[in-house]
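Below is how a single chain appears once it has passed through the pipeline. First comes the sequence as given, then the structure the pipeline wrote out for it. We keep one example in the README because the format questions we get most often are answered faster by looking than by reading.
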Amino acid sequence: MQDVQKQHVAIEQGDAVVAARALIAKLPERKCATSTHQLYVRTFYRMWYEPEIDAIRPGIARDTYQVRRAALHYGARRLISSVLKKLDELSASYEADRDPQRLQEYQTVVLVLENMVRRLTPAIDRDPPLWDDKADFSQASRWKAESGCTKARGAGSKKHVLPKLPRNWISRFWGHVPTGHKYRDAIAVLSISPARVGEVVPGDRPSGFSDGVHVALDGEGLLTLTHAPQKTRGGKYGMEFAGVKVDPEAEGPTAQYLAERCREEGGALIVAVQSPAALSKAIKRIGCRAFPDGPAITPNVLRSQRIADAKVAFGAGEKVAQAAGQCTDRTQSKYGNVTHGSRSGLRDAFSSRTPKLVAVARARDISSLRKNSLTSVI
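Resulting structure:
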């Protein structure tokens, strides 16, 4: 009878490993930027400690759902893979020395694995990954059907903060940055360039390693700020590099400070920080001092403002997408409106890849259609 019980335990252990490997087979192995990795890991472990693992929560926003869904796939694969690796190590160790303690450890880890598979399988079945990055539009979105969220997408966008700020708010904000501030260079970069806060952080990008934002002063006295965009889908989309050229005299104190820093460093410097979260918190604290009555200033408020400025300087379309490191002009509508921008010191924008013009062409088609319709009526 005891031998039968032992055999039954062994069968259960084997089933757990088989089920775990089958679950991993459903999840594509994806690489992402360091900041995205950190976001997914934090999100996954928050989900793990919820009573039931589910990418959907009542009233959840669509973008939050998509992050939780991606974090579920990314985190589940990494977690189960690490436990399977531990089991392989314990199995090899037991085969080597036949230590009963190793067998007991193995059985304990198998129980942990069983619990992981039990909790993760229903969540992944509800939200299976898209292997080819193409959504199945034949079925209704799970978020629309189950979230109960009535908030319009983009309602929380930082572009809505800009109407609440004065025209020269960045100059006022910059005036509250202490002279010896640890992140003074990085804050200056984000005040001039539409780079994301994570792009000031050194690390692997899908298109290669980035050591931060490159700032250079050319012979004509123009500043060139070059960053490596984080969102490139392994180089398939987005840009390997993007940036802007700025006239420090026209831009004002922030750009003039960076120009002087370039002179001190022999003409160029690399601006980098180790923690995007720490930089974001510093920007928020400075924003509270500059605007004690609000609104809150975040790196995305700065980015929205500079994209709005780029729309004034270059007109909506290719140059704006290049400045922001976006592969299409469609995305720029999510950021600052042209009515809240100014030409400032922006003189040019560049990128490693020519953006696809979708929104501009569509706007022209609509305009042409309206014009033709009006002509036919007249």
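The mean pLDDT is 83.

See the next section for the split statistics.
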